[in-house]
Design a protein that fits this description.
Structural class: mainly alpha
Number of domains: 1
Number of strands: 0
Largest sheet: none
Radius of gyration: 19 Å
Order of helices and strands: HHHHH
Distance between the termini: 31 Å
Number of helices: 5
Length: 131
């Protein structure tokens, strides 16, 4: 999650002069961070289910991930669009400013995920320790 937070911060200072190499490297590292989040969080969520509910848990996980991604995209696009329309109009500088503001919102969301992630623990490991 820390990789995701740091690379998202790297997207908050974009300008018209930002190179394609920088964007590609930062995007690759950000996706690496996100991929390292998805499997452990899915595993932790499904581990608490009894075996007869695993199929339903997997289906709900996939559905909720898609719905959350859609809502998150809509929120960030709304932030970007509102920021563009409240600044200098539809100029390239205004659009880049809107993207930077949307990435700052993504940083806030990522930080919240990082903090919440500190409170996730493996219940099965905890049960083994206490028994």
């Amino acid at each position: 999650m820390l990789i995701t937070v740091l690379t998202t911060i790297g997207f908050t200072g974009l300008s018209a002069d930002t190179s394609l190499v920088y964007l590609s490297v930062m995007f690759t590292l950000r996706m690496l961070g996100i991929s390292m989040i998805m499997m452990p969080s899915t595993t932790a969520g499904l581990n608490v289910l009894p075996p007869n509910l695993l199929a339903h848990g997997t289906a709900m996980n996939n559905t909720m991930r898609q719905v959350a991604a859609s809502i998150g995209t809509a929120i960030l696009i709304t932030i970007m669009t509102s920021s563009v329309s409240s600044s200098q109009g539809r100029t390239p500088a205004a659009m880049i400013h809107g993207v930077n503001v949307a990435f700052w919102a993504a940083v806030a969301i990522s930080l919240a995920g990082l903090i919440l992630g500190l409170f996730v623990y493996d219940r099965k490991t905890e049960e083994i320790r206490t028994s």
